[in-house]
Amino acid sequence: MAAWVKGGAADVDAAVEAAADLLAASRVPVLAGLSAEVSALRAAYRLAETLGASLDPVSGPGVYAELGALSAGGIMNTTRAETIGRADVILILGNRPWDGDLIAEIAAAAPSRGRAAGAERALLSLGGPQNGATRHVAYAAEAGGLAVSLGHLRAFAKGHLAGEAAYADLARRLFAAQYGVVVYDPEEVGELGVEMLQGLIRDLNESTRFFALTLADPFQGRAAVQLSAWTTGQAPRVGFGRHQPEHDPWRFDSARQIASGEADAALWLASLPAPRPAWLGSLPTVAIVGEGSPEAAGETADIVITVGVPGQSVGGALWNERRGVIAYAEPKAAAEAQTAAGVLARIRDRLIEKGVSC
Amino acid sequence: MSTLRLRGDLPERVDLLNITPLALSGLSEAEAGRLAIGTSRRGLTLGDVFEIRLDGSDSLVIEGGSSRLDRVGAALSQGSIRVEGDVGQRLGEGMAAGSLTVTGSAGPFAATGATGGTITVEGDAGDHAGGAVYAAKAGLDGATLVIKGAAGDHLGDRMRKGMILAGSAGAFAASRMIAGTIVVSGALGDHPGYGMRRGTLIAGSHGALLPTFVETGTPDLVFVRLLAQSLKRLGAAQAGLLGGTLRRYSGDLATLGKGELFVPA
Questions:
Q1: How far apart are CA A116 and CA A81, in angstroms?
Q2: In this complex, do A192 and B195 lie within 8 Å of one another by their Cβ atoms?
Q3: What is the distance in angstroms between the Cα of A270 and the nearest Cα belonging to chain B?
C-alpha cells in the first residue's frame, strides 16, 4: 500500500485529498484504462457521474470493433466449450488466436457431441502462421489484410466469384462443415472485417451450422461492456458532462480527447496490468495502479495510489475468458491491500464534500 | 439575418443541436443566451460562447468557427445556416431541409443521417463524411453533401440515399453503401466500395482495388449524361469527369454486388 503526490511519498489520505483537488479543478476530466475488477469499474462509473467525466477502457478499439458489427446486424457467437465439444471445422483468423493455449486445446480433441460427434476435426487458418506445432491447412491473406481477404472469401462462398482459387477451396471446406467455428480477435480483424465475417457466417448458416468464437481482450473490456450496459444502458465510452450518460465512441475516445487538448485531467485506473498510455505526464493525472506493477512509482503521474491486484492480493470479479462470464477470483494470498473500489469511493466522497456534483 | 459571433476559443466542445433559425425565431436575445450548449458540468450557454444578434429571419450566420462546434445545423428543417470557419463532428446530422454552408473544414460524420437539403463544406471534411454513426442504420439518407476539398476515410459509409460530391477521398470510400451516388473529381484511397451493396461511385482515380470488384466494360449510359446535367446545376467541378468514356467495375461481390464504380477509361 503506497502513494505518491508530486513524486514524493505520501500517506493514502493525503493522496486521496490531492486527487480530489486535482479532479475538482478540471473542466473535462477523463477516466481511462479501466483495466480492473468489476467493483472498481462500478466505482469508476459512480465517480464519473459525480464528476461529469467521461470513461474509456484501454480495450476500446477491440470492444468497438465487435460492438460496431453487433449493433449493425447482430453476431452469431458460441463458447469455447461448445467449440471444443461440437466443431468439426475450425477457421482461425489472423495471428492473435495462436498466442494462448486455445488452438492447441481445440486441436487436441475431436468433436464428441452433436451432429459432428465422431468426425475428424479440421483446422484451417487464414492470414496466420504458415507452420507450427499444430497441424492445419493454411491460406494466405490478401495484401489488403484480413478484412479484404474475408470479402474475397465471401464472394466465393456466395458463388459471385468462381474458379480454382485458394479461397474457392476454402469456401467449399467451410460449407462442408457440420458445425463450424471461426476463431478471431475483433481488434485484429477490425470493424469492417468483423461485419463481413458475420455476414459470411450468416451465409454459411443457410445450409449448415456455423458460429464465431471471439477472443476477449486481455484488459477486462468485456466486463466493462457489461457493467456499462447495466449501469448506463450504453456501451463503455460514455460521458456524464450533461447529467446523464451520453454514448459517443468518437467524442469520448480518451486518446483523442487528450491529444486535442479537450481533456484537462485524467484518472488512469489499472489495478490489473494494462499498456501504459503515451499521454501519461502530458496532463494532470491521478493513477490508481496495481501494487508491484511498473507504474507503481512516484514519477508515473501527479498522484499515484497503489491498490491490491484482483486475483492476487485481493478478491474481485473478473472476466473469465475460458467460461465467457464474469466470475469471482479469490486472492492468492491473504493481504491487507486496499481495493481500487475503496480508493475511488473515497475520492468521490471527498468530491461530494467539496460540493462537486454534476 | 441573425448572427452568432464567437467570443473566443472554446474551452470545451459545444453542441449546437437545435440552434437553428426556426428555434431562435421565437426567442429574445436574452432567452437565446440562456440556451445550454455546453457538454461539461460547467453548463456553458449560448450567450457565454457567442455574441447574439437575432432578427427573426430564416437565415443564421455563425461568425467564427472551431473544430469544437458539434452538430451545427443538426435537425435543420428550413432556412439557412452559414458558418464562417470550421466546425466539429456531425455537421447537419439528421437535417431535413434547408441550406447549410461551412467556409472552413468539418470534423467527422458530416451530414450523417441527413434526409434533405444541401450541405456544403468549402474546405475539407473528416472521416465518415456522409457516413453512419455508431449503431445507425444509414449515413447520408437523401440530402446533398458537397465537399470542395478532401474528404477523409469512409466517405459515404452505409450511405442510403442522396448525393455526395468531393474533391478527393481517403480509403474505404462508399464502404457498406446501401444506395445513392458519390462523385469524386480527384483520387480515391485504397479499397473503395468495401461491402457496397448498391449505389454509384464515380472518381478520377483510385488506389488499390478490391478483388471483389470486376470490370464490366465501358458502357455508354444515359444515366451518366443525366447525372452530368444535374451536376452542372450544382455548379460542381465533378461534371467534367463525366464527359469522357468511363470504365465500369461492378461490386462488391462479397455482398449484393449491385454497386458500381466508374473511373475514366
A1: 15
A2: yes
A3: 25
List of chain A residues whose C-beta atoms are within 8 Å of the C-beta of residue B39? 239, 241-242, 251
Q: Looking at residue A302, what DSSP letter applies?
A: S
How many A×B Cβ pairs under 8 Å?
98
Decide the pairing of beta strands B259-264 and B246-251.
antiparallel
Give the span between the Cα atoms of A325 and A36, in whole angstroms.
15
- What is the CB neighbour count within 10 angstroms for residue B136? 18
Number of neighbouring beta carbons within 10 Å of residue A229:
12
Least CB–CB distance from B12: residue in A27, A142, A144 = A27
CA-based nearest residue to A179, from A118, A115, A92: A115
Q: What residues of chain B lie within 8 A of the CB of A249, using their CB?
A: 134
Separation between Cα atoms, residue B239 and residue B2, nearest integer Å: 34
Q: Does B126 touch chain A (CB under 8 A)?
A: no
CA distances from A229 to A36, A58, A94, A327, B137 (A): 17, 17, 29, 17, 21
ipTM reported for the complex, 2 dp:
0.95
Chain-centre distance for alpha carbon A132: 27
Residue type, B108: P
Listed in sequence order, the residues at least 6 apart from B30 whose beta carbon sits closer than 8 Å to its beta carbon are B47
SS3 A260: coil
Which residue in B187, B107, B115 sits closest to B145, CA to CA?
A: B115
Q: How many contiguous H segments (helices) and E segments (strands) does chain A have?
A: 11, 16
Express each pLDDT in B25-54 by its tens digit: 999 999 999 999 999 999 899 999 999 999
- Residue pLDDT tens, chain A, 358 long: 799 999 999 999 999 999 999 999 999 999 999 999 999 999 999 999 999 999 999 999 999 999 999 998 899 999 999 999 999 999 999 999 999 899 999 999 999 999 999 999 999 999 998 777 777 889 999 999 999 999 999 999 999 999 989 999 999 999 999 999 999 999 999 999 999 999 999 999 999 999 999 999 999 999 999 999 999 999 999 999 998 999 999 999 999 999 999 999 999 999 999 999 999 989 999 999 999 999 999 999 999 999 999 999 999 999 998 888 999 999 998 777 799 999 999 999 999 999 887 6
Which region, left, alpha or beta, applies to residue A349 given φ > 0 means left and ψ of -120 to 50 means alpha? alpha
- From chain B, pick out residues whose CB is under 8 angstroms from the CB of A203: none
Compare all CA atoms of chain A with the CA of B154 and give the residue at the minimum distance: A192
Minimum CA–CA partner of A167 in chain B: B211
Say if residue A138 is exposed, middle or buried (CB neighbours under 10 Å; 0-12, 13-18, 19+): middle
How big, in percent rounded to 5, are the helix, strand and coil portions of chain B?
Answer: 10, 30, 55
Residue in chain B closest to A143 (alpha carbons) equals B208
Spatial distance between the Cα atoms of A284 and A302, rounded to a whole number of angstroms: 6
Alpha helices in chain A (DSSP H): 12-24, 38-51, 60-73, 80-86, 102-108, 146-158, 166-175, 186-204, 221-232, 254-259, 340-353
State whether residue A39 is helix, strand or coil.
Answer: helix
Using an 8 Å CB-CB cutoff, list chain B residues near A195.
176, 195
- Specify whether the CB–CB gap between A23 and A322 falls below 8 A: no
Question: Per the CB < 8 Å rule, is A148 touching B191?
Answer: yes
Task: Please give the model's pTM, rounded to 2 decimal places.
Answer: 0.95
